[in-house]
Amino acid sequence: MTSVAVPATALSDPLYTVVDGYKVDPNTMQGFRTWRSAACDRCHGPNQEGLVGPSLIERLKVLTPEEFKTTVLGGRLAKGMPSFGENPKVVEHIDQLYAYLKGRSDGAITRAKVVEIE
């Protein structure tokens, strides 16, 4: 069993916790559920590797959490990215969505579909 916990900052709880590459903490699981409910895979692909939208595996390597939130909530209409700022589920769980996608980008979450750590 392999476990990874990545701190968000030095004084906070971990951004995400992953066991065996696909078992995640409840907050990261909520991020996965948010990903699915917002149907982000339609543009970014089922494995976040990109389709008409860019690879989020690559983008999350360079986007700060603030830039991520601005992009998701405000959109980039000129590039085809809709705004999710009016989607209550996305707004409420934006930090969890970031944690899930950052875990994928960091390589700690090794497959797109995850399950909650029991």
TrEMBL record:
The keyword Iron applies. Pfam families: Cytochrome_CBB3. It comes from the Bacteria. Keywords: Heme, Iron, Metal-binding. Residues 26-105 form the Cytochrome c domain. The keyword Zinc does not apply. This is Methanol dehydrogenase. It comes from Aromatoleum toluvorans.
